[in-house]
Amino acid sequence: MSTTTTSYAAGPAGVSKHAESPLPTTATVPSRIPGERPRTGVTFARLVHVELRKMLDTRAGRWLVIGIGAVIATALVILFFNNGGQHSFEDYLQATTMPQAIILPVVGILAVTSEWSQRTGLVTFGLEPRRGRVAWAKLVAALLVGVGALVLSFVLAVVAHQAAITFRGIEGDWSIAGLTLLGASLYVLLGLAQGVGFGMLFKNTPAAVVVYFVLPTAWSILGSLVSWVGDVGRWLDLNRTMQPLFEGSLTTEQWARLGTSVGLWVVLPLAVGIWRLTRAEVK
Fold it and tell me: Where is this region: Disordered (predicted)?
């Protein structure tokens, strides 16, 4: 069966006349795409895997990792030749963890802000509309990067200290306090979590990076100049509250101070950042 449409064409004397052309009324239905239909959404493990690739398999992330490696290599070489290489394993471990604790949080910031600065949020939240799961996947991926960095720093410290014993003839000192090891681990992991929180909070790379580095430093400087700020800083300055961990002893009050500062600088930015991430307009 067919139907006709009427069109108008000008005749020789300028008088329009009807022209009829048949059009089919039936349309071809595309065939069913072969294969099994998905029955579940994107798994959380896959989301974490994707966020790990975003952190490390990008130009910015790759150069940050290269920069961290260069700083660590320089620090180990200095320790190896300085003072005849006579340094403890704890000194070598500190040389490998401190650069990571300072620079790795920027990787966490970029993992969040890239969704907005590079406009990939439409793809990310289109494939996984549940933004809360994406936010938690970013945090878990950042912590996994931190765990991997800690393992690598431990291995590098062992190799460097053993090399100093073998080639420099120093006396080995493998002793390290458990709280010191815990402090180094928390310093790296909390920094990464804080970076992710600041990234979610600001959704802008320059703003998040500047505030992450400047605000704690400004707080410490202000605390040294103003007495009442210094008293408050004993509870709210994360650098000061973590210092007893590296000294190898923590009292009950010091644990309370550490928990308070972590709540202010890590938990609060994460909570507010996740709330903003789930409600921000994606463009």
Answer: 1-35
